[in-house]
Amino acid sequence: MSFPGEFLMSSISPVPASETPASPENDPTAALRINHTHAGIRARAAANAARDLDDAGLYFNRELSTLRFHIRVLEQALDETHPLLERLKFLLIFSSNLDEFFEIRVAGLKRRMAYGNEEAGMDGHSTSSVFHEIATSAHEQVERQYHILNTQLIPALAERGIHFLRRNTWSKAQKEWVGAYFDDEIMPVISPIGLDPSHPFPRLVNKSLNFIVELEGRDAFGREGGMAIIPAPRSLPRLIRLPKELEREGHQEYVFLSSMIHAHAEKLFPGMTVRGCYQFRLTRNADLAMDTEDVSDLASALKSELLARRYGDGVRLEVANNCPAHLSDFLLRQFRLEHEDLYLVDGPVNLSRLMAMIGDSERADLRYTPFVPGLPKALRKDESLFDLISRQDILLLHPWESFGVIENWLAEAARDPSVLAIKQTLYRTGVESGVVSALIDAARSGKEVTVVIELRARFDEADNIALASRLQEAGANVIYGVMAYKTHAKMLHIVRREAGRIRHYAHMGTGNYHSKTAKLYTDYSLLTAREMLCEDVHHVFQQLSGMGEPRHTEHLLHAPFTLHRRLMELIDRETAHARKGRKAMLTIKCNALTEPKLIQALYRASQAGVICQLIIRSTCCLRPGVPGVSDNITVRSVVGRFLEHTRVFHFHNAGKAETWCSSADFMERNMFHRVETCFPLLDRKLAQRVRKDLDTYMLDNCQSWTLQSDGHYEKRCPGKDEAAISAQETLLYAYAARP
């Protein structure tokens, strides 16, 4: 399904689809794939196939690849096919992404450098070389981000009646209101800290907004002016909307908290002169370093670590670009950072906090057009979900199809007297989740409820600890999974008594049980009563809650036990088909591809002539387009309105196709250090539907970026005579409810 002009997307370096190199979707017999036969594609000459697949030149660095993804997100802020407030949202998401990138990935690099660990990874880059390359690129992109904000987005918003008012533009009435707001709302909660021998430099919270102030004069105790720090309490909003009576009619006008503090800083230091006031923000190492072997109570240990996270080692310092060098140098010394860690910014240092304004804005015309998630035809009847699922598998594609189906099914199970037990994994979920409410209701009604909660889901640890307490208070059995392995699988198992016998039901998905992200992330959900699949899910839950040898699963692939090995076998099977002259093809769609053995299996498949279509949202360490190694591999990244999150693996298998969905990415951690599941789509029609979805992504020429052999991504754009095709808009049209 195509969408004309309205879905065209601009880019700095667009590449018309008609000008891209030969690829599976536009020429399945391209000369790039040599030695064609009527049956398929033969392997290259043995000399080429023998190239050393351990060669560092065949791999991209993981951290650098991740940073390139964040840059693709920033590119969306320039894309005028997105509504204006959505473009601003992408720019703010870039800030949030970069924060986490520094807190985790850059912090890890700095820690390794501190310990003298310069060991190169599979890509051959030393730790320090990766860090320096990241610093160079990050500085360029941050400068570019603020340039986009100041020269494009803010002026465009002003033209549409949304204004961010600078101090020199405040009217007399606005100045008076700001002054009163400062006195009533800011002064009572703010605590300036003078710096002298009795007031050492304060310990500032990770990513908090602060100001460094230069003072002149004497204070009440006769102390000479010098420097002070003003921490901005997190309870204060970073952007304050003016009262309607002070706004121009039909306009929305906002004032930054930082502007208010700048304008009234002298009120915090009576009798002294403020020579300068400059905002800054410190990003700290936020990775949890917990020795699981020495932990007897995971929840208690995590609570302690979460407190420490707020005060980890500094990794990045953001300072207003008008701050004098002697002050920024002073801050660098306090945080033990180098000039390479200093980012001078032309605007607020905490852009991601502006996200609240987008949600509060009244301008629906500057947002995406809302839609109502659809339902498969079978679910539109007024019928028990148990009756329906007992007859057929149900597949949902969120967000275009409703996540409410899973919530409603759990609520029905909680009420149903025939339901005996419910087991579920929770990795990330909302605090006020309908899923959690249903589990609590089920436990209170006397059903056997067992919930495997992964407390170590990064940045959701505190919420998950609170969630575990709520469930335990309701009478649910709460398990924290396996100490050395994060439980990342998405599974629900319901046991029901029907006509005197036990019947099993299951849900498996590629995404979390989170109603909010289910509106933003693309994910598949399978609801089934197939006996063997449900039995496999039951065995995985037994493995998590009990002890003993790995439980055998008939259809389900289960990390860390069978998933990696079986994926290698499935890729190798396509390789064997290609070597026998048969048609051979595979499609992998996931969030990241970093695991070396899987990459090498894909290289061998390409060398044999297998057409490898990879749709990798973010990090990809595989280098496509290398002659004799990966010239049968294409890698795409789709970035758009929704965050691509589905993990789907399709194998042609000489005409006997297999399609799998999974909670796991092609990463070392998913394969060897997490509990993951990968499930087959055994219903032929559902499998065909997913394959059509994958084909739609391969046809995308609006939101798709193609990875080049040198590591950069080129934006695909429609050719002169081509229709514009957006995969996400096409799927929205296909699956969402009709108006």
From TrEMBL:
Q: Which cofactor does it need?
A: Mg(2+)
What modifications does the entry list under PTM / processing? An intermediate of this reaction is the autophosphorylated ppk in which a phosphate is covalently linked to a histidine residue through a N-P bond.
- Binding positions for Mg(2+) per the UniProt entry: R428, R458
Q: Where is the Polyphosphate kinase middle domain?
A: 174-356
Query: What positions does UniProt annotate as the active site of this protein?
Result: H488 (phosphohistidine intermediate)
InterPro entries in the record, alphabetically?
PP_kinase, PP_kinase_C_1, PP_kinase_middle, PP_kinase_middle_dom_sf, PPK_C_dom2, PPK_N_dom, PPK_N_dom_sf
Q: Which CDD domains match?
A: PLDc_PaPPK1_C2_like
The record lists the catalysed reaction(s) as: [phosphate](n) + ATP = [phosphate](n+1) + ADP
In its UniProt record, a GO molecular function of this protein is: kinase activity
- Protein name in the entry: Polyphosphate kinase
Could you tell me which species this protein originates from? Kushneria pakistanensis
